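ARCHIVE CARD
CATEGORY: sequence design from structure
SOURCE FIELD: tokenized fold
FIELD CONTENT:
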């Protein structure tokens, strides 16, 4: 059986007595383990030679799709190219061997890097200061909301327990608000996909802590009324929170701070080219306006005449009720370091090209495909846009079918069935790093699939045809996952 084609488990390649290692001679003597922590039976581990192990995992790695080996049009989450130089810098022993409890005078270089990252992100977003402590985007959301709550509580404004969230928001927005103990109030979108200012006005009052927004929003549309929205929310005493998931198209074009946002979280694992996917690692720095600096969590790096120190000099006894710790130590320092490398590599001038190029690529794809795919909101988009399935609904081919068929042509599928505003949503986001040749190839394939849907719909409905496995029963996999080799063998025996 061809291991690469059929993807055998490492246990199925096992043969008793084979080894892929040799241990050095024991120079430490015998130290028996206490019986209470010893296994009753030997661990069931595969026994394979070294070449079998290497080929097995190499073949499996080639079945994994990544931005390094194909086009990734995944909307909503910027699956951006991660240059190897970012990894090289983050792998330097001078950084990886550091310990967070080292004396301050022995880590001045690392603290300077962290301080520079804080200042760079603040400058890019138009914020006064930034904390690097949160470990991921949703963690950054929670931190930002806790800062907002602390601000209102410090002022004795305890009635403000509601957060306004657009109906097109990322799902983590209402979830983070709920975890923070805040009540979620939904504001509707207009037929054009933007926040409905007329629906917003009646929601504002002395119980509103703030509003959470993404700009451009989840449909890839710039909220053109953002200045009016900011004034309305500020006038009622609330604050504006910026979900940084869609910051990519704004780089070099606009800054959330200039739009009136008071708090922003960033996804370094999206906008700033650090690894993304597989559950981590992530980083979700939070930036704040001047009046919220005292509420930033600790530890925080700041600069003195003598060098760099760790604390928040603005967090005095007056702000003792402020939320001042959300993580251990300094967050994911090496992820922040990767993002800083990306920023320095581009430099002040080239980072300004990111947003415009991402916007150009998205609009080019949209205009080329809108005759075959239904475009519910036909206007200038930013980094991403949303189709509502195929334009010809008579074929019976769904967005899921199109996504599965894309796999046969070597493309990762875009985000599907999100946002929930459209029944057959298909969100496409090319990012700025893709060439016109790559994008043209994707456009051609999408046209081919649309033609297949019209001429041979069953071909598309039964896709994928060229992948190691076909369509997975997602519900069954979630409810009854097979997590061990022994369980798999038992299940196969029962089926037999």
């Amino acid at each position: 059986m061809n291991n690469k084609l059929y993807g055998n488990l490492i246990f199925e390649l096992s043969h008793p007595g084979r080894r892929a290692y040799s241990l050095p001679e024991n120079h430490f003597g015998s130290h028996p383990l206490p019986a209470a922590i010893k296994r009753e039976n030997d661990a069931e581990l595969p026994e394979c030679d070294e070449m079998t192990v290497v080929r097995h995992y190499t073949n499996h790695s080639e079945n994994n799709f990544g931005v390094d080996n194909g086009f990734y049009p995944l909307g909503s989450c910027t699956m951006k190219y991660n240059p190897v130089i970012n990894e090289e810098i983050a792998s330097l022993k001078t950084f990886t061997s550091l310990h967070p409890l080292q004396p301050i005078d022995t880590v001045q270089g690392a603290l300077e890097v962290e301080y520079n990252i804080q200042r760079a992100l603040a400058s890019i977003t138009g914020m006064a200061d930034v904390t690097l402590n949160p470990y991921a985007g949703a963690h950054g959301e929670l931190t930002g909301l806790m800062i907002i709550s602390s601000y209102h509580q410090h002022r004795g404004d305890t009635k403000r327990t509601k957060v306004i969230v657009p109906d097109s928001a990322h799902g983590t927005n209402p979830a983070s608000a709920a975890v923070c103990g805040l009540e979620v109030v939904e504001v509707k979108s207009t037929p054009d996909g933007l926040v409905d200012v007329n629906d917003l006005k009646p929601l504002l009052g002395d119980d509103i802590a703030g509003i959470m927004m993404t700009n451009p929003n989840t449909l890839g549309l710039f909220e053109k009324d953002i200045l009016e929205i900011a004034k309305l929310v500020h006038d009622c005493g609330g604050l504006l929170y910026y979900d940084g998931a869609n910051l990519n198209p704004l780089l070099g074009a606009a800054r959330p701070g200039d739009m009136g946002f008071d708090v922003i979280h960033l996804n370094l694992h999206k906008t700033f080219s650090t690894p993304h996917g597989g559950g981590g690692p992530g980083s979700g720095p939070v930036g704040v306006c001047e009046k919220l600096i005292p509420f930033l969590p600790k530890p925080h790096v700041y600069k003195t005449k003598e060098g760099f120190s760790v604390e928040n000099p603005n967090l005095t006894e007056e702000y003792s009720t402020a939320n001042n710790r959300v993580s251990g130590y300094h967050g994911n320092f090496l992820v922040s370091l990767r993002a800083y490398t990306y920023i320095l590599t581009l430099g002040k001038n080239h980072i300004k090209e990111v947003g415009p190029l991402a916007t150009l690529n998205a609009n080019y794809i949209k205009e080329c495909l809108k005759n075959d795919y239904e475009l519910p909101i036909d206007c200038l988009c930013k980094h991403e846009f949303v189709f509502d399935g195929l334009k010809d609904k008579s074929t019976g081919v769904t967005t899921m079918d199109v996504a599965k068929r894309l796999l046969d042509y070597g493309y990762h599928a875009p985000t599907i069935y999100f946002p929930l505003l459209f029944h057959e949503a298909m969100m496409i986001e090319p990012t700025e790093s893709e060439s016109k040749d790559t994008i043209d190839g994707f456009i051609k394939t999408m046209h081919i699939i649309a033609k297949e849907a019209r001429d041979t719909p069953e071909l598309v409905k039964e896709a994928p045809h060229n992948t190691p496995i076909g369509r997975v029963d997602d519900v069954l996999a979630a409810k009854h996952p097979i997590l061990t080799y022994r369980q798999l063998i038992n299940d196969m025996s029962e089926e037999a």
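CARD ANNOTATION: Residues 436-455 form the longest helix (20 residues). The mean pLDDT is 91.
SHELF: design records, drawer C
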